[in-house]
Amino acid sequence: xxxxxxxxxxxxxxEGEDFTTYCNSSTTLSNIQxxxxxxxxxxxxxIQLVKSGEVKKQKRLTFQFGEAKKNSSLHIxxxxxxxxxxxxxxxxxxxxxKLTFGTGTRLTIIP
Amino acid sequence: DTxxxxxxxxxITKRGQNVTFRCxxxxxxxxxYWYRQTLGQGPEFxxxxxxxxxxxxxxLLSDRFSAERPKGSFSTLEIQRxxxxxxxxxxxxxxLFASSEPHEQFFGPGTRLTVL
Lengths: 111, 116
Known about the structure:
The complex is a heterodimer.
Chain A: E1 4-7, E2 10-14, E3 19-25, E4 31-37, E5 44-49, E6 55-58, E7 61-65, E8 71-76, E9 85-92, E10 100-101, E11 105-110
Parallel strand pairs in A: 2-11
Antiparallel strand pairs in A: 1-3, 3-8, 4-5, 4-9, 6-7, 7-8, 9-10, 9-11
Chain B: E1 5-7, E2 10-13, E3 19-24, E4 31-37, E5 44-50, E6 53-57, E7 65-68, E8 75-79, E9 88-95, E10 106-107, E11 111-115
Parallel strand pairs in B: 2-11
Antiparallel strand pairs in B: 1-3, 3-8, 4-5, 4-9, 5-6, 7-8, 9-10, 9-11
């Protein structure tokens, strides 16, 4: 079955440093979504990418979808304490609405 | 507040007992999903509905698990003869499906199940 892996599993950064998490799927995806889950909270939708090579920005967050639609990345510039949480990518296959979540990257910020 | 509510928020039960969870999605959403999440892992898909029809069920879901959405609004997830391995957070999500492309899912706060 489809597997979605993320690296790194954990990332500790000083406040103000940049952060990147990478997402890799074992199969080609029709689209990919990113979610953020704060400690003790539930996943909250951030963005969806559909097109090969697509890049989207939300303030300090930049999302990319690979040309082969098998990988994606999330980059945060100048991290803030509010960025703390676990970031999940989640992909769907063509003709299937089921979201397969990645393993997640847990970000902690050192003030 | 995403608008998806789940009840109860916490459930402690003894092994072998049956439990039922309820999810109330955002009112205009036609799709409803159930996921299970264990500590340090991403949500794992269990099943989903479009209106009252159950469209897909994970192969990982044993016969002890059953879900319903009888009127296309709220949904229930029942686990029969609970086992310690069922201990997890059970998340419900809903979305508005209006075209061929998946849409963002809005998650509820989850029901944390502990099986003793």
